[in-house]
Amino acid sequence: METKTLDREAENRISFITYLIVEFAEAFKMSKPKAYLYLQQYGGLDFLYKHWWALHTDSKYYALLDLYEVCRKNGGYR
After folding, report:
1. Which of 6, 12, 17, 74 has its CA 20 to 30 A from that of 47?
2. Contact 17, 11 (CB under 8 A)
3. Contact status, residue 55 vs residue 20, Cβ threshold 8 Å
């Protein structure tokens, strides 16, 4: 059986998105699973997948602020 490995960009994307979900959970006093579901429900994950490369060059504060704004504009309440 052939083992597939992730390319470097995919590894970086996964690491950054995972990191930002955890940071979002801590910033908004949520559990990690709840933060994931919240971001999924209000468009935050789509935003992260699409713009992760630009977000990772910004500070954590501004990346979280961008995520907050995207979710708020899509009906989020936090």
Report:
1. 6
2. no
3. yes
- The reply to whether 27 falls in a domain is no
- CA angle at 9 for the pair 5 and 14, rounded to the nearest 5°: 80
pLDDT given for residue 5 in this prediction: 72
Is residue 57 in a domain? yes
Give me 31's structure tokens: 């559990």
52: containing domain: 39-78
Domain presence at residue 1: no
Instruction: Determine the Cα–Cα distance for residues 19 and 76; give it in Å rounded to an integer.
Output: 21
- What is the pLDDT, as a whole number, of residue 37? 97
Residue 50 lies inside a defined structural domain of this protein: yes
What is the number of domains present in the chain? 1
